[in-house]
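Any chance you'd type out a single protein's sequence alongside its tokenized fold?
>
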Amino acid sequence: MAAKSTSRKQPPSRDSKKEIAADAWHRMFVFFINTRTQRDHALEHFGLTLNDARALHALDPKEGRAMRALAEAWGCDASNATGMIDRLEKRGLAERRIISTDRRVKLVVLTALGVRTRASLQKALFEPPPELLQLNRADLKTFRDAMIRLPEK
């Protein structure tokens, strides 16, 4: 018995809104997974894990975030969030600050080095994969314009 082909080059003939969305999501997800090497190289260049990058992206240099809020936002327990922040703090990318009104709560902020590192990392991570650049300009514009309509959070 021949293996079922997983190639999805041609759009399926089904065209309900849900089927189109499922096919589009499948294609985006597979593309994202297949271009992981490019992201891994960027993370490796900065000596960061994916979770470290996630933490850098979530932090701000002025407005601190409590560890509990970070853990909730990241969907992890407090010990995982603590480990992530410990790694960033050890490298001078983030720091914990005590709130004068409640010394039990520590807010985490990016340092100046953290801000620069985040900007450089994002520049590397947001570099489009070569496969995406193979699309023609009109298709890229259509894709971009559709992505703009999706919520960022």
Q: What stands out?
A: The chain is about 60% helix and 10% strand. The CA atoms of residues 61 and 110 lie 4 Å apart.
